[in-house]
Amino acid sequence: MTATAVDEYVFENIAEDNPIHAEIFLPFTIARLREAEAVQEAVLSVQLRDIGDDGERQRKLHLMWSEGSAPVKSLPVQERVVTEWAASGIACVLVPLYARMRVLQVAQAGDSFDHWVGDGKQEYALEVSGTIRESLIGRHLAKVRQLQENPYGIDGFVAVTRFATREAIFSFNRYEETA
Amino acid sequence: MSRQKRQAISRKGLDSAFVGEETRKSNLILEANLLKEQGRHQEAADRFAEAAQIEEGLSEILAEKGLMDKYFVHRFSAASCWAQAGNIYQAIVMCEELLARSDLPEGLRQRIQEHLQVLRARREQWFISLIPAAVTLEG
Question: What pLDDT score does A120 carry?
Fold first, then answer.
């Protein structure tokens, strides 16, 4: 059995690694990841599916952040929104780190996904979801189906995070025409 | 990833000025979404309106460059932004213009039709809510 590789990432780098104002997600993600106020790091288990190479790979992602990025008081939105935005923060790490792309744009409600990602030449869809305790596999499957219903007929990525166990699945998915 | 050709939207020939405006628009939508969740609806609507105007400008550039797949993305986004800013009239007009095009991809046509149906229903509710109570009671 081989040890799972560990990747280090300074969380604040999402601001430079993505053109969109990704740092807006920082306090939400930190609020979901940290176990105590003084904690400034967390380790996530990330399963990569068809990212970089075909097939599945397992990685450990060691995230570190500075005290200034953490929320000083409770965030003025519903808990559901905190989890959603926390998952977007994780996606803004996974996309540049593993897919070698950047989060370029915010999508619209009618698009069936949350963001547009790209490599400078092409754009793909990115669907993001977060949960505290629900099944990661079940949520991922539902989100893949949602992404595959996009009206543009394009391929895309799905990034799902389960915060209670600090696990994530990041996958590349082909568009499937259902008609 | 599989060697089979991927299905994506082309960004060929887009310059840094375009990318800058695209980013500015996205940041406005991000802020608007957060403000909306905080119940700060007027501030959210202001940002959606500004984003809608940027999207209209971007879509015109894309049409000139012949990047029609991306043109449709930004045009539909402009309509969505107008709707979220509260300008349902403009959103409906833009959706109808898109549907009048013969080169609109079928999947997107279906999605825009669904969106348009929602917008028209909202407009109807709006008209009904504007009628004074006495009129609705007495006919």
Answer: 87
Please count the residues of chain B.
Answer: 139
Query: Exposed, middle or buried, A74 (CB in 10 Å: 0-12/13-18/19+)?
Result: exposed
DSSP A27-89: HHHHHHH-SSTT--EEEEEEEEESSSSSSEEEEEEEEE--GGGS-SS--SS-HHHHHHHHHHH
Rounded to an integer, what distance in angstroms lies between the CA atom of residue A119 and that of residue A122? 6
Per-residue pLDDT tens over the stretch A128-151: 999 999 999 999 999 999 999 999
Q: Which of A19, A107, A152 sits opposite B108 (nearest CB)?
A: A152
CA distance B130 to B8: 45
Give dist(CA A48, CA A33) in Å, integer.
Answer: 20
The overall pTM is greater than 0.80:
yes
**Chain A residues whose beta carbon lies within 8 Å of the beta carbon of residue B80:** 108-110
3-class SS of residue B135: helix
- Substitution target in B31, B37, B104, B108 with the highest count of A β-carbons within 10 Å is B37
Closest by CA position to B104, among listed B53, B68, B58, B61: B68
Domains of chain B and any CATH numbers? 16-138 (1.25.40)
Domain ranges of chain A: 5-173
Q: Per the structure block, which two tokens stand in for B4? A: 């089979």
DSSP letters, B98-130, are HHT-TTS-HHHHHHHHHHHHHHHHHHHHHHHHH
Helix (H) or strand (E) holding A123: strand A122-131
Distance from CA of B63 to the nearest CA of A (A): 17
Q: What is the ipTM of this complex?
A: 0.91
